[in-house]
């Protein structure tokens, strides 16, 4: 008998997953059960029935879902993500269910996207395009623009994505300042970066602040009214991490103040690939003339999809077929 795995994809297709399984030793002992669903909706007990494994793309697992998984004999929850703030990890582990993620699968992709957003803000690509679409042809419109050389990029934390951002920024002639409490000055210097001793120091010194921290209790609303007030009025904020790291009402106010003050207070602009609530996104930010919002797509390349499929399916093969601990186990 094959091990049945609920392959919880929005479109319900198992075709790409099966193609990845065909390249994995032992993959022929896994049966993928397709299940189309709305994004950000937990699977039901009926959908979970008879499955030993779960591979989720945009499927959260709350406490009730974790209990339902335990009741149906689930042995592993393999998440096609890096962050796990949408998964009841402790509850699953309390039932003896292994939980895995896919660290690093899209580090280069998100890093390139963060740089793309930075360049977009610095040169007003999106904002000037909006003007042209509105019938305004003014190459001198908007705020004063600067080249990258000599500017300071501040990175909040220094995981795999921030590490991939740094050399691109350095190649553009930028100084890279990093606030990462767990990283030493020597480690950062080896990557060509300068250590900020505090977040406040980084915010005050950076021309662009790019967030690369996980969503944990200590980072929720990390960037709020006080922190935005510490930034230069000419500075930009980029978030490709998690939406709740930024207090969105405070950000709207800082952007408004930047416009109202003629660029002497507030901040100049922001680019967000993530929002605090992506099912009912903040319309004030989407409509704001100094904000770019994209639909949580920084990771989205064909190469990243291929990597994350293979990593997540390798985990279920390891657990169910070979009864060994998957490489990227976060709880069990």
Automatic annotation (TrEMBL):
It is an enzyme of class 1 (oxidoreductase). Keywords: Oxidoreductase. Residues 115-298 form the D-isomer specific 2-hydroxyacid dehydrogenase NAD-binding domain. CDD domains: CtBP_dh (cd05299). SUPFAM superfamilies: Formate/glycerate dehydrogenase catalytic domain-like, NAD(P)-binding Rossmann-fold domains. GO terms for molecular function: glyoxylate reductase (NADPH) activity; hydroxypyruvate reductase (NADH) activity; NAD binding; transcription corepressor activity. InterPro entries: CtBP (IPR043322), D-isomer_2-hydroxyacid_DH (IPR050223), D-isomer_2_OHA_DH_cat_dom (IPR006139), D-isomer_DH_CS (IPR029753), D-isomer_DH_NAD-bd (IPR006140), NAD(P)-bd_dom_sf (IPR036291). Its EC number is 1.1.1.29. Pfam families: 2-Hacid_dh, 2-Hacid_dh_C. Residues 42-318 form the D-isomer specific 2-hydroxyacid dehydrogenase catalytic domain. GO terms for cellular component: cytosol. Belongs to the D-isomer specific 2-hydroxyacid dehydrogenase family. This is Glycerate dehydrogenase. It comes from Collinsella aerofaciens.
